[in-house]
Design the sequence.
């Protein structure tokens, strides 16, 4: 059964000077117990989609249902079934971690004792017990995000929306966040997650939808998308500009490699992974071509965009961040 | 949970949350009180000597009701700042995504601001007693005056909510708030008798809601209350009640409407 369904969602932001079609006909579906990753650059329409599904914003056209309830006509029923954790940790900085969770639990209409028990359970699960009695102002970025996610889970939501859960976190914070999200996924949560990172969608989502200019331009599993992009590649930066052509002929005699003269960089497809990298290094050595840098590169959001749209992932004016 | 009991329950939780902020950021209350005490000292000891009251009486007794109304009026700026801050930090969005009563965010805000300002008022009254302010009226009149002031605070809080929802940042809210509240307190009888103002300004000052409030509580406390005759001077209590009700009837629905329109 589809826990989240949206058809032809349109949202236009109007200001005196211009009109921005933030969403231009978005369709999507998240099956119960699965994770959909909404992948796209800033301004693509990810946040707008989540805000409409979470009843925070009214679409100009189209319809959406969460857990079977219409987001416009039956918003209060939708709110009972969802948990939302946004881009900015929306917690009360002047309350302690425990007080925050208790408050949100009470606002989900749990009894005071129930809210307290649930708060303690989540504080423990998210490694916040030690900080539970401190005001949230003193928390690190990673701790705030974990508290924010805990707040989204306090009412045991059937559907969870996470809007860029790791944006702005340091690598350690990101790993910690992935860990707690994965736990939710294992326990069968239905999750819609937005991200700018292919790696993150790959890590957490079973299905990915790529968003660009308010439209979904591709769907599939991470592997399907990557195969469209062409999978992994090897990038080598040669020391002497004169060696670039020679290296290209040596490693990709069929002419499939791409060279960037000014960067002295050669890129070739790498279906063979690390073994192929070792082989490439050996052959370059034998041909006495000196390299400054060589690496196996995994496709990024930029590569996906390049392959799907022919243009790189552009940052649009931050109109959706402003609302 | 019925709709009404949810509204009360959620409103109380929001009130709790707003009041928790007071001990967590004690500077806010301390500076609000210090600012008012500064005005008391400034007018009682610096300007006061140069302001003769028509009909005589103690300037300090005249001054304190003006200080009370000024402080409670300025409190709406604090309300606006708190609302804008909640908007900017995404808290309003989170509350709107919860199955809580829609009314609770704003009712919790305004009710907690009335409670908070009642506390500020107690401190100010004690400071007033120190500089020589006295209450000469009956206990009933005293309580009526306090009730009127809190009703006024409630109405002003709704204006603060509306400003807080409309402005893009805390700084703009603060500026706009001052722009509205400053002339209201100074073109009034809060610090000087309106008779000392230029002729063209006198009617404005006399009909100013802040003047009506100040005159009404001066009368209830039995403090000196020189006021030119005419409707505002003869019926300050009635006029202050009308003004406060009017402000509430106009601004509370506007604030609620603005809050509902956030999802556009």
Sequence:
């Amino acid at each position: 059964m589809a826990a989240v369904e949206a058809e032809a969602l349109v949202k236009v932001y109007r200001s005196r000077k211009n009109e921005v079609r933030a969403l231009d006909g978005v369709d999507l579906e998240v099956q119960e117990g699965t994770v959909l990753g909404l992948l796209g650059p800033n301004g693509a329409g990810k946040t707008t989609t989540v805000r409409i599904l979470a009843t925070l914003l009214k679409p100009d056209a189209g319809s959406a249902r969460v857990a079977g309830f219409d987001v416009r006509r039956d918003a209060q029923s939708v709110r009972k079934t969802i948990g939302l954790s946004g881009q900015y940790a929306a917690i009360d900085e002047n309350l302690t971690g425990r007080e925050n969770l208790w408050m949100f639990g009470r606002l989900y209409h749990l009894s005071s004792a129930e809210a307290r028990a649930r708060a303690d359970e989540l504080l423990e699960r998210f490694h916040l017990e030690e900080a539970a009695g401190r005001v949230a102002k003193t928390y690190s970025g990673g701790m705030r995000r974990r508290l924010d996610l805990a707040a989204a889970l306090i009412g045991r939501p059937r559907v969870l929306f996470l809007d860029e859960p790791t944006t702005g976190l340091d690598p350690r914070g990101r790993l910690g966040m992935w860990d707690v999200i994965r736990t939710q996924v294992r326990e069968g949560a239905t999750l819609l997650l937005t991200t700018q990172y292919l790696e993150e969608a790959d890590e957490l989502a079973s299905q990915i939808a790529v968003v660009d200019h308010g439209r979904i331009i591709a769907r599939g599993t991470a592997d399907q998308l990557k195969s469209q992009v062409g999978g992994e590649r090897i990038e080598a930066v040669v020391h002497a500009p004169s060696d670039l052509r020679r290296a290209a002929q040596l490693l990709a005699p069929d002419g499939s490699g791409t060279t960037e003269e000014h960067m002295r960089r050669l890129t070739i497809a790498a279906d063979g992974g690390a073994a192929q990298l070792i082989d490439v290094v050996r052959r370059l050595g034998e041909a006495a071509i000196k390299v400054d840098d060589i690496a196996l590169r995994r496709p990024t959001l930029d590569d996906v965009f390049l392959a799907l749209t022919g243009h790189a992932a552009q940052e649009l004016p931050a109109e959706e961040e402003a609302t | 949970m019925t709709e009404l009991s949810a509204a009360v329950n959620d409103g109380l939780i929001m009130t709790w949350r707003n009041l928790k902020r007071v001990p967590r950021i004690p500077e806010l209350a301390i500076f609000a009180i210090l600012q008012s005490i500064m005005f008391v000292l400034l007018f009682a000891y610096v300007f006061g000597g140069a302001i003769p009251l028509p009909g005589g009486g103690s300037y300090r007794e005249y001054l304190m009701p003006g200080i009370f109304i000024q402080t409670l009026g300025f409190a709406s700026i604090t309300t606006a700042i708190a609302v804008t801050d909640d908007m900017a930090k995404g808290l309003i969005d989170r509350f709107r995504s919860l199955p809580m009563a829609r009314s609770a965010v704003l009712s919790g805000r305004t009710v907690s601001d009335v409670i908070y300002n009642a506390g500020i008022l107690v401190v100010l009254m004690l400071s007033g007693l120190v500089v020589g302010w006295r209450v000469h009226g009956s206990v009933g009149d005293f309580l009526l005056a306090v009730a009127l002031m809190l009703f006024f605070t409630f109405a002003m809080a709704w204006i603060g909510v509306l400003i807080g929802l409309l402005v893009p940042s805390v700084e703009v809210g603060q500026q706009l708030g001052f722009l509205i509240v400053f002339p209201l307190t100074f073109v009034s009888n809060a610090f000087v008798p309106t008779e000392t103002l230029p002729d063209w300004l006198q009617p404005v000052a006399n009909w100013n809601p802040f003047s009506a409030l100040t005159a009404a509580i001066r009368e209830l406390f039995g403090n000196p209350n020189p006021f030119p005759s005419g409707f505002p001077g003869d019926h300050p209590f009635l006029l202050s009640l009308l003004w406060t009700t009017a402000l509430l009837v106009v601004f509370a629905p506007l604030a609620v409407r603005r809050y509902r329109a956030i999802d556009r």
